[in-house]
From TrEMBL:
Gene name linked to the record: thrS
NCBIfam families in alphabetical order: thrS
Matching PROSITE patterns: AA_TRNA_LIGASE_II
Pfam families linked to this entry: HGTP_anticodon (PF03129), tRNA-synt_2b (PF00587)
CDD domains the UniProt entry points to: ThrRS_core
InterPro entries listed in its UniProt record: aa-tRNA-synt_IIb, aa-tRNA-synth_II, aa-tRNA-synth_II/BPL/LPL, Anticodon-bd, Anticodon-bd_dom_sf, Thr-tRNA-ligase_IIa, ThrRS_core
A Gene Ontology molecular function term of the record: threonine-tRNA ligase activity
Keyword annotations: Aminoacyl-tRNA synthetase, ATP-binding, Cytoplasm, Ligase, Metal-binding, Nucleotide-binding, Protein biosynthesis, Zinc
Native species: Streptomyces inhibens
Protein known as: Threonine--tRNA ligase
Aminoacyl-transfer RNA synthetases class-II family profile domain boundaries: 41-310
GO cellular component: cytoplasm
EC number(s) given by UniProt: 6.1.1.3
Length: 420
């Protein structure tokens, strides 16, 4: 077990499956099937916020988003190599009108075809194509559980089509995006791994290609100054990768983020760009994922934070606590203002018990806004923070401005006293 396997804040181990049900984030049902969880409104709010964070970060980093279908013809995966190297993990093909279509096991082939559908000049490179898209894995029912082993996966994926000279910079930039995302999410990586091929026939054989791509990624890691370990037998079938490993509450390690260099698929799909010399050249594909699958990322976040998500990600960001019925109209007004500002707020009124009971019930909510007679008269709130801090009553407008700024900045701080 590694040193980071313990839970943060010394809490007892969190199991995301148990917490996911208790907190009404997600669930499964035998009628829908094993490995096919559904997301309840609070879990969907977390997921939606996470997806929007990623899309925004990608747009800022020069990525453009596409949508592609979750099905493709069998031939598509024969060309990509999935059919011969990965079919054990794929659902069997479906016969439709004399053709065989497959639930896709990855987004790469679709993106390669999208790239190929238009001609590209070297001036367009690096061309960064991103998609939060569905893919499917035929996991055996015995290994399915919660959000970590699922059959339907929403992947934060992107492919950068670039020249050989651009690969290192793009891989480096992807590592920096991962660093920033982890900071916002409050995730600490366990280790960085350089994943290399191992013995056995599951890798495409092209020794020179493997050497070149491995040298590139090694150089990126060395220059990044990040400590890493090389691991044989962990590469993708088409190329080596940098994996960012995290550890769950039970000490199990898994890959969340990844950066891969691929010479294979550009070859298979006959991709090219027109160079400055007017001739056709082969681009390199960099595959990268900032948070991996949304399912695994949320599972990890639940366990890492014990359900107490960073404020920007919390399903309910602020709970309004009117002390008595007399403050109810102020409470409704505050909740309304929150909603208008894009904050997720709810009211826990006196019908839900004593103030103490309501405070305990909302213990995972980052902000609790208590309104008594005095606060109501002045348009003030007395704010309680999830970490136990209690602030003096302040004007509602000031509180909302302050919270809004922290949330927009994706801060993991609940309150920044220096600016209040
Ligand atoms: Zn890919």
């Amino acid at each position: 077990m590694r040193s980071l396997a313990r839970c943060p804040r010394g809490d007892a181990m969190h199991d995301h499956r148990k917490l996911g049900r208790e907190l009404d984030l997600f669930d499964t049902n035998p009628l829908i099937g094993a490995g096919l969880p559904y997301w309840l409104p609070d879990g969907a709010a977390v997921r939606h916020t996470l997806e929007e964070y990623i899309r925004t970060a990608e747009r800022r980093a020069g990525y453009r988003h596409v949508y592609s279908p979750v099905l493709g013809k069998r031939e598509l995966y024969e060309i990509s190599g999935h059919w011969s190297h990965y079919s054990d993990d794929m659902f069997p093909p479906m016969d439709v009108g004399g053709e065989q279509v497959v639930l896709r096991p990855s987004l790469c082939p679709h993106h390669a075809v999208i790239y190929r559908s238009r001609s590209h000049s070297y001036r367009e490179l690096p061309l960064r194509m991103a998609e939060l898209g569905g893919m499917y894995r035929s996991e055996l029912s015995g290994v399915l559980g919660g959000l970590t082993r699922v059959r339907a996966i929403q992947l934060n994926d992107a492919h950068i089509f670039c020249t050989l000279e651009q690969v290192a910079e793009e891989a480096q930039a992807a590592l920096e995006m991962i660093r920033q995302a982890y900071q916002a999410l409050g995730i600490t990586p366990t280790r960085y791994r350089l994943s290399l091929p191992g013995p056995g026939g599951k890798y495409v054989s092209a020794p020179e290609m493997w050497q070149r791509s491995t040298a590139l990624l090694t150089d990126v890691l060395d220059r990044s100054g990040l400590p890493y370990e090389a691991a044989e037998g962990e590469a993708a079938f088409y190329g080596p990768k940098i994996d960012v490993q995290v550890t769950d509450g039970a000490g199990r390690e898994s890959t969340l983020s990844t950066v891969q260099v691929d010479f294979h698929q550009p070859e298979q799909f006959n991709l090219h760009y027109i160079g400055a010399d007017g001739a056709k050249h082969r681009p390199v594909m960099v595959h990268r994922s900032i948070i991996g699958s949304v399912e695994r990322a949320v599972a990890h976040l639940i366990e890492q934070h014990g359900g107490a998500f960073p404020a920007w990600l919390a399903p309910t960001q602020l709970v309004v606590l009117p002390i008595s019925e007399a403050e109810m109209s102020n409470a409704i007004g505050l909740a309304r203002r929150c909603t208008d500002l894009g904050l997720r707020a709810e009211i826990a009124g006196p019908e839900r018990g004593t103030l103490g009971a309501r405070i305990r019930e909302g213990r995972l909510v980052p902000y609790q806004a208590v309104i008594g007679a005095k606060e109501a008269a002045n348009d003030h709130v007395a704010l309680r923070l999830r970490d136990g801090r209690r602030l003096d009553p302040q004007a509602v407008g000031d509180v909302l401005t302050h919270i809004g700024a922290l949330i927009n900045a994706h801060s993991t701080d609940l309150w920044d006293s220096s600016t209040s």
